[in-house]
Amino acid sequence: MNTSTPLNFLDALKAIQEGRSLAQAAGLSRDLLRVLYASAVGLYESGQHEEALMQLHQLTSLDARNPDPWALTGNCFLKMGRFAEAVTAWRVAMAAAPTFATAATIVRTAVAIKDPEASAEALMVARRQRTTPNQFADYEALLDLWNRHFAPALVS
Q1: What percent of the chain stands above pLDDT 90?
Q2: DSSP SS3 for 47
Q3: Cβ(146)–Cβ(154) below 8 Å
Q4: Is-above-0.90 flag for pTM?
Q5: What does the pLDDT look like over 23-64, one tens digit per residue?
Q6: Please, which pLDDT band fits residue 2 given cuts at 50, 70 and 90?
Q7: d(CA 61, CA 125)
Q8: Cα–chain-centroid distance for residue 43?
Q9: At what angle do helices 116-129 and 83-96 cross, to 10 degrees?
Q10: Is residue 14 within 8 Å of 24, Cβ to Cβ?
């Protein structure tokens, strides 16, 4: 198990420039990060979305490349009715680890809030990530949804 060390600004900057997370630079263990994430999940599941967001903000600051805290951040924002922020968080999660499920969620939500850029980006990711017959069918439905909402604006 790693022991954590204080991290000053210059060390943090150097770590980021080297492609390391702040958690790695501070010597925080993966187990500690998992415990913090589990705590955030518990807060989310108990409906304490603001409190979960506070923990998730810490986690995303410590390791911005981990998609799980970003996805849960999006879910919290969704539950709070903050749809544009949910889409933003899910886009970060999708950039870190593209999955069909995340892309499909983004497409549906971004179409609902009339965000053609986010929905188009997610639609392209969904196309690349589809592997099962259900995903192929779901992709066609997503494409149809996107076309119904945004294609007429392109023709005008």
Answers
A1: 69
A2: coil
A3: no
A4: no
A5: 666 676 788 888 999 999 999 999 999 999 999 998 988 888
A6: very low
A7: 25
A8: 18
A9: 30
A10: no
pLDDT in tens, 102-131: 999 999 999 999 999 999 999 999 999 999
Amino acid at 78: L
Q: Which residues contact 61 (CB under 8 A, 6 or more apart)?
A: 22
Place of tokens 């099962």: 132
**C-alpha to C-alpha distances, 92 to 7, 24, 55, 122, 149, nearest whole angstrom:** 25, 20, 17, 11, 24
Which positions ≥6 away from 15 have C-beta within 8 Å? 7, 21, 22, 24, 25
Contact 74, 43 (CB under 8 A): no
The tokens for 11 are 């060390």
Query: How many Å apart are CA 64 and CA 31, to the nearest integer?
Result: 17
Between CA 40 and CA 115 the distance in angstroms is: 28
DSSP letter for 29, please.
-
Contacts of 53 (CB under 8 A, 6+ apart): 73, 76, 77
